[in-house]
Prior knowledge:
Structural class: mainly beta
Radius of gyration: 18 Å
Mean pLDDT: 93
Strand content: over 45%
Helix content: under 10%
Organism: Rotaria sordida
Largest sheet: 5 strands, antiparallel
Number of strands: 29
Distance between the termini: 4 Å
Keywords: Signal
Pfam family, one: FG-GAP_3
Protein name: VCBS repeat-containing protein
Amino acid sequence: MMFSTDLNSHPYSIAIHDFNKDGQVDMAVANYGTKKLVTFLGSGNGTFENRGSYGVNFDFAPLVVGAGSFNKDRRSEIVVAYDAIDHVDVFVTYNLGSFNHQMTYSTGNWPRSVAVGDFNNDTRLDIVVANRGDNTVSVLLGYGNGSFANQTKYSTGSSPFSTAVSDFNNDTHLDIVVANVDEDTISVLLGYGNGSFANQTKYSTGLYPASVAVGDFNNDTRLDIVVANIDNTVSVLVGYGDGSFANQTKYSTGKIPWPVAVGDFNNDTRLDIVIGNFGDNTISVLLGYGNGSFANQTKYSTGSRPESVGVGDFNNDTHLDIVVANYGDNTVSVLLGYGNGSFANQTK
């Protein structure tokens, strides 16, 4: 399936959550060109209803959108970072999948990526923002009512471009990983469980790491990291379970891989990887062997210039599907999974 996001909208980022509390997976798409967020409400059969009339008009061009239930109402709120604007906005969700009640929070310079997690173990979701312009991440601790404390900043490598969170040392405290696009590294910041973090430890990646994701790729209960590198590779760094990682192993992708996500696409309890290839209008799927290694890529067509990818079960068949935001032709592609690691042709 392919859905229009409107003329010259240039969709840039996708968040997948249940925004209207009906038990179905929905999508929120941030459109760089029209400075608007559009909601696609899932029907549970693989189709979506465009609720553009309930979208949000932004003052600035959005770069990334994230989601989480920040006020414990079981509906997902959204957090948005903008191009060259030094703040993020948090919007509250209403039943129709619409958003309102904007609250603004300062960040570092040029926030480029956001992720959500409970960093101080108080059952309230917090936000981390990767600030490309000043080589920092900002941590905003949540109060549980949809509002957040002022930022605390931590140093990263040069030009942090993407961030993700997980527990890398099995201490029940969430940690942060950041892809540093201008120095070919990732930074790992281990959390103390009180909302603060240790100084970064860096690991080498391929050239120009643009995106990072996390999963247990060798089924050892220790989390690993995958990085999409603009040199047409992904790097897999296997975790030791103590917050440190082995040297990267690289796998080929399509041209200019940009976004990366993980999921079990063939129902074998082994995590797989999907990458959006910005340079050749495809996604690459790499099926995992469960030992930290992966099969060669299988490619599927998308729209023009895939900018963001997401994973979810959109038709309630227990098989994971893939959604892609196509910056170049103002569409969103949905590729329904067969449960064996292969996918139907896109519908746009």
